[in-house]
Specification:
Largest interface: C-D, 52 and 51 residues
Largest sheet of chain A: 6 strands, antiparallel
Oligomer: homotetramer
Number of strands of chain A: 6
Strand order of the largest sheet of chain A: 1-2-4-5-6-3
Number of domains of chain A: 1
Shape of chain A: globular
CATH class of chain A: Alpha Beta
CATH superfamily of chain A: Hotdog Thioesterase
Chain lengths: ~160, ~160, ~160, ~160
């Protein structure tokens, strides 16, 4: 099999999407995500939620890899509270819904819910801090806080009665 | 945030695709896949390849979860040989290309290559055995071997000069 | 290399230990636990804490595997709140300290701290629910609640002024 | 719970051991290592083997973290062939046996077997290449090749009839 023979240009990784200030990211449960008790391993949801957050930043034009390689820093989770409501299983299609809840100079708080169809699987609040390569809190790049602020405003504007 | 407010029907997990007997599955590198040395952790590629194989079966109409829950069995990797050619990094878009190489009654051999653009990242040969819940080799369900055989034939027919 | 030639009887997996109602479990950080930003990936701490909880049960004589195989059920995390205080890095020696905080019929709340030397790395509160194979809450086996209760009492007795 | 109250000095992470040129490293199977089919997930064995290799280097006095932080480089797996012989399950005690098989300037080949009691679980051959931070092959530090050579000689000397 020579991989270089033919490369389909239209088979691309999943991209999440913003709708009215909320970010939607889909994932499917694979072997790696489950444990012998038959359900998704509790730490696997943190991976799903991190993929969604990274995608959210990606969609907002923030290049985490470039920021890290330039020596600016990277996000690290500072606080995470997760409630496991119903178990997910192998082959399930999940949707991670994320919203920026609070924005500080050096950190951002993101609310995340994972659903399967209409059913809530987990809900979480995650605080991510921007850290220098040495591990100290650093003010997030200004274009990033602006991008976060924009989706917060949008969420408030379109869902005024929440 | 009430997740049930609005659920976009069009944000769905990535589905791989068959083209002329080869299966193409895309994935993006996230934090979880990397290690402190800056590149993708070597075992993470096994996860990418397993996702691709599970998707391949899914696209061929084989329901692994139903087979397991019915007590029929599940696939387990019996032999795996992987060559690491070039390192992948955070945020890279990868494409897993898989082809059925050999088909036996109780096992299947799948050739897998992971590329980034035109560059080969890893290449592997994986033998997966179908096992009873007790762990003994079992003949694969007949519709499954037929489905595997169909994509093998197609691959040969359309790429005769390889 | 013939593995059966010689098997040293004294090279055994790490066992945690109870001291005055607290459980101590050590682990070292490996490649798999880190990410490209150079520190331990946030979900890896959940694995360390789960190893410690499983070891705790093991030391208390609870056989989770036997309970699962007998169809009784298994624990699943219901709620988890974790604070990331300082980052850990490759090759660090960590110590997970766990204490039973609250005991209910179908669940147990465990407080867990991870330290490196004298430095606190993370602190967490984890609620684990005992579930039937079908995923419904079930009363924990009576010998298990007794074993949990015993270490709670001991912790109170020996540290009365906390 | 104040973690700093009491820290037992004798609860330490597992250290592997060399005996006659072979390295022995123990590990126990936890939830994280298993999948819904009830057995250890195939990629988890790569983690066990990597922990054993890192411990092997650690026992031989090679400080991978210092080498990386000094900008010298890090090991990356270049080739891995693994045979899955029997499945391991939750709570199993495993022993990873490793031996240096071949030593080149910029890479080392290590043979690894995982056993449970007298039973072989997997056997593998792993080639690890030393790479610069930029990802190019680099000659391993001389004290490291000497340390590897020493355990190879010892293995040959003490087991001449293999």
């Amino acid at each position: 099999m020579d991989a270089s023979n033919y490369i389909p240009a239209d088979v691309k990784p999943h991209d999440g999407q913003f709708r009215a200030g909320r970010h939607y990211f889909a994932c499917r449960v694979y072997y790696e995500d489950t444990d012998f008790s038959g359900i998704v391993y509790h730490a696997a949801y943190l991976k799903f939620m991190e993929r969604a957050r990274s995608d959210m930043l990606y969609q907002l034009g923030m290049d985490q890899r470039a920021a890290f390689e330039a020596g600016d820093g990277a996000y690290a989770v500072a606080d995470l509270h997760i409630k496991y409501i119903a178990p997910a299983r192998f082959q399930d299609n999940l949707l991670v819904i994320s919203g920026v809840k609070r924005l500080r100079k050096a950190s951002v708080e993101i609310e995340q819910t994972i659903i399967r169809g209409n059913e809530k699987i987990v809900s979480a609040v995650v605080q991510a801090a921007f850290l220098t390569p040495a591990g100290r809190p650093r003010r997030q790049p200004e274009p990033w806080t602006k991008a976060f602020a924009a989706v917060m405003v949008e969420a408030v504007d379109t869902k005024p009665d929440e």
